[in-house]
Amino acid sequence: MQKRFNNEVLGREFSVPAHSDLDAYLEEATRKGLVPHEYTGTHWRQGATCEDLRAFSWTEYRDCMYYYQYYGHYYVIVEP
Questions:
Q1: 58 contact partners, CB below 8 Å, separation of at least 6
Q2: What pTM does this model have?
Q3: Distance between CA 2 and CA 25 in Å, rounded?
Q4: Are 79 and 44 in contact (CB under 8 A)?
């Protein structure tokens, strides 16, 4: 089973979105006046940067970059 899983994973195309994709997203979101959402994932830690999220998820990284561009600061996590 592990061997089959490895073959499936290795057989998939590996694609990292280009920086131009991020720029296009930021420009489009700004043009549309979209308001970024607060962070809802599980990878954010106080003192982190958007680059720290890139290892976990392109979407989280992209959204973090837009949040930072929009508000001028990173996510703020309020402890309960």
A1: 16, 17
A2: 0.74
A3: 37
A4: no
